Amino acid sequence: MDHATRPRHYSQNQDAMTATRSRPAHADVDWVDDAELLDAYRFDRSGWAPDVRPAVVARVRSVAGVQHVLGVADATGQPVVPRGAGTAVTGAATAIDGGIVLDLTGLDRILELDAGDELAVVEPGVITADLDRAARARGLQYAPDPASVEISTIGGNIATNAGGLRCAKYGVTREAVLGLDVVLADRRLIHTGRRAIKGVTGYDLTGLFVGSEGTLGVIVRATLRLRPLPAATATVAAYFADAPRAFAAVAAVRALGVVPSVAEFVDAATLQRIDEFTGSSLHAGGRAFLLMQTDGAAAGSEAGLAAAALRPYATSVTVTEDPDEAQALVAVRRAALPSLEQVGRVLIEDISVPRSRLAEAVVAVEQAAAATGTTIHTFAHAADGNLHPIIVLRPQQDVDDPDVEAAADRIFRAALDLGGTVSGEHGIGVLKRRWMEAELGEDVVALQRRLKDVFDPRGLLNPGRAI
Length: 467
Description:
Blueprint: H1 14-21, E1 29-32, H2 35-40, E2 56-60, H3 63-76, E3 80-83, E4 100-103, E5 110-114, E6 119-122, H4 128-136, E7 140-141, H5 154-160, H6 167-170, E8 177-183, E9 189-193, H7 205-209, E10 218-225, E11 227-228, E12 233-240, H8 243-255, E13 262-267, H9 268-278, E14 288-295, H10 299-310, E15 316-320, H11 323-334, H12 336-343, E16 346-348, E17 351-352, H13 358-372, E18 375-381, E19 386-392, H14 402-417, H15 436-440, H16 442-455
Parallel strand pairs: 2-4, 3-4
Antiparallel strand pairs: 1-2, 5-6, 6-10, 7-11, 8-9, 8-10, 12-14, 12-15, 13-14, 13-18, 16-19, 17-19, 18-19
Helix pairs in contact: 1-3, 8-10, 8-13, 9-12, 13-14
């Protein structure tokens, strides 16, 4: 990360610090400035450890509380970092020195679950899996399914436009967001979108806020699309001698017209780490693992077609419609990142390329590791071209180590050269900002920064992130 992308330090603003210490009380805001707690809010899940400390954490319990905190920020000139569970992996939820961390986890209610219109209205602190469980009790599901589903919040998912395991069929978070309530930097509460599935009145401000990483406003309520629970789900697990064969097999499945709800790739090195973490013996099956699920009334027959298409490429293929076996297989994929985090600090990268070029992307990642002496593990959402190369840092190594930066640069350049993007679902945060112009171009970046100025003219909402 170059120094130009580092967040500005605000602790030198003594007037702001004094004003924060004399902040006005509000019934729905707890101001916390305990040193140990402040230290815990410095980080997110990105592996980046900024040498900063916020002035205060504001824990809110209502929309009025959010508006109050933004009023204090406006009076003091302090930056505000909206934060949910802190599971962001690009530095977007890390603290800013001398700033305010706005903790939204206290806004954690499912306000409405309408089975007839297949929608839910929720606050941003709701845990993603909790919403899905509540929907399932009514015969529905919340389709976005990030690997962090049990710990990430809906607000954070919206802020980063999170993807997940089921996005191959159901799309990323943006496809599930019908409308938002947002508090702007000037404390105004606005509503975007609607409860209806369709709507094209005016510019799509809802889509603009999705993925904006807290830089345009603070999401305080979301109207979300739910979907009927599939009549059945079938699971296919396959092992391959190498990654190219695995991705060729996925292409063969899609060529049959089968659209899997899940198609997850895990490389050999990651399988070995999962074995060490869970006690399994996955890596004995092959050098690449593919988990595929089909759902709906034709799930069984589609899984059979998929298995037949996979077999010419695979060393082994198994099919199951047993829910417990399926859950155990899905747990393999969800264990990938926690297993790597047991080895050491990780830098979680996220690129997306055309599906036909996934095998080339994996080769480019391997070449980046060899050229820089870094350790990189890879897993992927294989059906939509989203690849996660995970750089495992050596002891005492940081994310801005020259070798780590060189490896990341090679990965991002490869993604762009292959017709892809430097972020498929994790966002830009702090760590990827220098690559935005390479992908978007100078004029588009300038236009996006002008949009930021419209919504946040003083630049107090999560400055130095996303754009």
